[in-house]
Specification:
There is one protein chain. The protein has 419 residues and is an alpha+beta fold. The chain is 36% helix and 21% strand. The chain has 12 helices and 15 strands.
Length: 419
Amino acid sequence: MKKTIKQLKDSKNLALNTMQNLIDNAETEDRNLSTDEQNAWNEAETTATDMTARVDRLERSMNLTKTPVVPVTFETQNVAKTDKDLKRFSFSAACQAAYNGQMDGIVAEMHSEARNENKSRLFRGVGIPSIALEHRASQDLPAAAGNVRPTDVSSFIDQLQANLVMVQAGANFYSGITADRKFPIIGGITSGFIAEGGGSGQTATGNIDEITLSPNKLISVVSMSAEMMTQNASAEAALQRNMARSISASWEKALLQNDATTPSGPNSIFNTADALTIAASITKAELFAAEKNILAKNFNPASGNFAYIFNAGGLAKLKEEAGVDYVQAYADFASKTVNGYPYFVTQNLGTDDTDPSEAMMFGDYSDVHLATFGGLDIISDRYTDAAKGLSRLVIVSLVDGKVARKTATLTSLVKGVVA
């Protein structure tokens, strides 16, 4: 007969009471347990042990069934709260290990983790796994001898995102991917009403397509002195910041240039955007035409991330156009919006052999997907700049970016350029 947890606990308590009574009786009479009493005590002990195990097993089973099912997500683990050892890791320590050719402690552990998370990648220097790019170093921990003390700075991924204008505009960003990733694109779905009694059915015109993000190797080079790696606690923040700026600038330029492709790099997102015809300069009429272009394709501002991106010339023209129209809410430079949509600025927009005087791009940036693959590989070159007392650090990263919908009738972005 199946027993409840309460019944099992009652049986356990009864056995424990029997054991205690046998001992109390013998001690009262100042003697040892008799053979029969000892057998009874052993039997009660077995029962108590068995009941304890059954109660524990049932309680654990009930707790497991109460645990809610958590959906799988692509959110990054908050290692700052879950892994105290990881806080001891710093970029400066990794650079110093690459410079000295010696890895130990947390640097060696992170290098091993980088190799494990992407077994097909060849690391020529010190590897930094993607999990280490997500954390914030803690300045409360003591520094190892000869190493820069970790300082409380934003994570590398935070700084990389802060320097990518399309992420600010609302693009999707994925970090730590270890292989090509495909994204399904569902479009052309039609809906309609039919009579309650039946009749003609709705024609199905939906289609499923896909894009694939694939790694492109991006090389960044920085010169550092050995003293910089060991003397200044702020070197950690400066190193991460400058690395992120260098990587994001090259990555962004490839994605936003006017040319279709970059040798060995990702294809341009700007190049595939719908092109507006601009006679002489970007005016309010062109901006309204860009918004009409996207809205006419049934992109919904309520469910997307609509925004403008300008280059310096485009922003200057925007301010010139708004000169007498501030009261009409055409542009709000305090909140950085145009017609209610946010705007962002980068000089990488529309570049080619000669930078355009004015450039803009408008659309739904939730349709843009950016990704970093794995972590970083830091290689030290101690000889090229040795005469200057410097060591060159070569940082290898893998990146890609694509826009999901770029067909002629369903392009999610529209551009305008003035040469």
